[in-house]
C-alpha cells in the first residue's frame, strides 16, 4: 500500500460489534473478564486500549515499522527510550537539539548517571571520537530546530552498526510523509505526535516506532510500567488527523517553497534557512532522504535587531506567535527568547541562532495570503 492509502486505512477496521467505520473512542479504564484471566486481549487501559491499538498500528505502517508505541507526549516517548539504559551508559546526540530533549537529558537523566555528549553531526569523525565501551545510543534529530540542518541518516546508521549502538531519530519535523528513518537503518523513530501527525494543534502526544521485536517488548514494558500513556479521545483525534497527513504535507511543502523563495528575495531579509534551496549546505543529503522539504523555515533580518524581529511578529495577522508547529494554521516563533532562551547568547550565535531569527511553521492556508501577511509585517520595519 502507498502512503495515502496507509494513512487512511492502516490499523483501522470497521468496529466488530456495530460496523462503525471510524474506530470508536473506547472511553473505558477496564474490561470485564468472563473468568480470571479469560478476557478478549484487554485488561486495563494503561496497558491496552482498542483506540490506542488502532493508532499504534497506523503509526507503525506509516513509518514502515512493525511496532508503534504511543505516549502521553513527545517527551514521554523520549523518556521511555532513555529508560532502556543504565547508570554509566553514554548517549551521543546532536548539538542543536530540541530544547525539551536537551533539558530531559541533562537535567533529569544525568542525575541518574547516564552521560550525554552533544556534537555536530555533519562529520561522523566527531561522533566516533566520543564512542567508547559505555556508548549505547546515537540520538539524531533532522531537520534540526531552528537552524534546519540536515543530518545524513545513512551515515549515522553506518556508525551505529559499526559500534553496535542503537540509532534513534526524532522525526517530528519531517513527519513520516517526508522521511522514514527506519528505511535508512535507524532502530527507533520518535515523534512528537503533537505536531504534524496530529496536525490540528489540539492534542499533545508522542510515539515510537521500531522493527525489532525484542526492542519493542522492552519499550512496551516501559510504556506500561511507567504509565505515560495517552487517552482514547486523543488517540481518536490523531487517527482522524492522520487521514489527511499526506494532503497536508503536500501543501505544507508547496507553501514552504513559495514562502522560502519570497523571503529569499525580500530586501529586508538577511538569510533564509530551508533545506529545499539548492545552496543549502545539506541539500543533496535532504534530497536523498526526504520526499519533499516541508514548511519549516527560519530567517534573519538585515541589521539583526531584536526590535525589528519583534515588530514583524507583532504585525502578523495570520502567522500566530506561539510555541509548537505542524498545525494547519501558520505559526511563528522567536527561538532566542522562546524555545532557546536558556542557551547562552554566545553559544546560540555560534550556530547562527541570532536575535533577529524568526521561525515559521508554514500552514496550509492560501500562499498568496501568507505572502501578503509577511510583506505587510516586514514593511513595518
Ligand atoms: C515538540 C517537540 C518535542 C517534544 O514533544 P511534546 O509532544 O511537546 O512533548 C520533541 N522533539 C521535537 C523536534 C519537537 O518539536
In brief, what are we looking at here?
With 381 residues, the protein is α/β, with parallel strands linked by helices. It is built from 14 helices and 12 strands. It has helices at 3-9, 50-62, 74-82, 99-108, 124-128, 153-162, 175-178, 213-226, 232-242, 245-264, 283-289, 306-314, 345-350, 367-379; strands spanning 67-71, 90-94, 115-119, 135-141, 166-170, 188-192, 206-210, 269-273, 296-301, 320-321, 331-333, 358-361.
SSE blueprint:
Elements: H1 3-9, H2 50-62, E1 67-71, H3 74-82, E2 90-94, H4 99-108, E3 115-119, H5 124-128, E4 135-141, H6 153-162, E5 166-170, H7 175-178, E6 188-192, E7 206-210, H8 213-226, H9 232-242, H10 245-264, E8 269-273, H11 283-289, E9 296-301, H12 306-314, E10 320-321, E11 331-333, H13 345-350, E12 358-361, H14 367-379
Parallel strand pairs: 2-3, 2-4, 4-5, 5-6, 10-11
Antiparallel strand pairs: 1-7, 6-7, 8-9, 9-12, 11-12
Helix pairs in contact: 1-2, 2-9, 3-4, 10-14, 12-14
Amino acid at each position: 500500500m502507498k502512503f495515502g492509502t496507509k494513512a487512511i486505512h492502516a490499523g483501522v477496521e470497521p468496529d466488530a460489534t456495530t460496523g462503525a467505520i471510524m474506530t470508536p473512542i473506547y472511553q473505558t479504564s477496564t474490561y470485564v473478564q468472563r473468568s480470571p484471566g479469560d478476557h478478549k486481549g484487554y485488561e486495563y487501559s494503561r496497558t491496552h486500549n482498542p483506540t490506542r491499538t488502532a493508532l499504534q498500528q497506523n503509526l507503525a505502517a506509516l513509518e514502515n515499522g512493525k511496532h508503534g508505541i504511543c505516549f502521553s507526549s513527545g517527551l514521554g516517548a523520549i523518556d521511555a527510550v532513555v529508560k532502556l539504559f543504565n547508570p554509566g551508559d553514554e548517549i551521543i546526540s546532536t548539538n542543536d537539539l530540541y530544547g525539551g530533549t536537551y533539558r530531559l537529558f541533562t537535567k533529569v537523566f544525568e542525575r541518574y548517571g547516564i552521560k550525554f555528549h552533544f556534537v555536530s553531526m555533519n562529520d561522523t569523525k566527531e561522533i566516533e571520537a566520543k564512542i567508547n565501551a559505555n556508548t549505547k545510543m546515537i540520538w539524531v534529530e533532522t531537520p534540526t530546530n531552528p537552524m534546519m540542518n540536515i543530518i545524513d541518516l545513512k551515515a549515522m546508521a553506518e556508525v551505529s552498526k559499526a559500534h553496535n549502538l542503537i540509532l534513534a531519530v526524532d522525526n517530528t519535523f519531517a513527519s513520516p510523509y517526508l522521511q522514514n528513518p527506519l528505511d535508512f537503518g535507524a532502530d527507533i523513530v520518535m515523534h512528537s505526535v503533537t505536531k504534524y501527525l496530529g496536525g490540528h494543534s489540539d492534542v499533545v502526544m508522542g510515539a515510537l516506532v521500531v522493527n525489532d521485536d525484542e526492542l519493542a517488548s522492552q519499550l512496551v514494558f516501559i510504556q506500561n510500567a511507567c504509565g505515560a500513556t495517552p487517552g482514547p479521545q486523543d488517540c481518536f483525534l490523531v487517527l482522524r488527523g492522520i487521514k489527511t497527513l499526506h494532503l497536508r504535507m503536500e501543501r505544507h511543502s508547496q507553501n514552504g517553497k513559495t514562502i522560502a523563495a519570497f523571503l529569499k528575495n525580500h530586501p529586508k531579509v538577511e538569510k533564509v534557512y530551508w533545506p529545499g534551496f539548492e545552496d543549502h549546505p545539506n541539500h543533496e543529503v535532504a534530497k536523498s532522504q526526504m520526499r519533499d522539504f516541508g514548511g519549516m523555515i527560519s530567517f534573519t533580518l538585515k541589521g539583526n535587531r531584536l526590535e525589528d524581529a519583534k515588530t514583524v511578529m507583532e504585525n502578523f495577522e495570520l502567522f500566530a506567535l506561539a510555541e509548537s508547529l505542524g498545525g494547519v494554521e501558520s505559526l511563528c516563533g522567536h527561538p532566542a527568547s522562546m524555545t532557546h532562551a536558556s542557551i547562552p547568547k554566545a553559544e546560540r550565535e555560534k550556530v547562527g541562532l541570532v536575535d533577529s531569527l524568526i521561525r515559521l511553521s508554514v500552514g496550509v492556508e492560501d500562499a498568496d495570503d501568507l505572502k501578503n501577511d509577511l510583506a505587510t509585517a516586514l514593511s513595518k520595519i
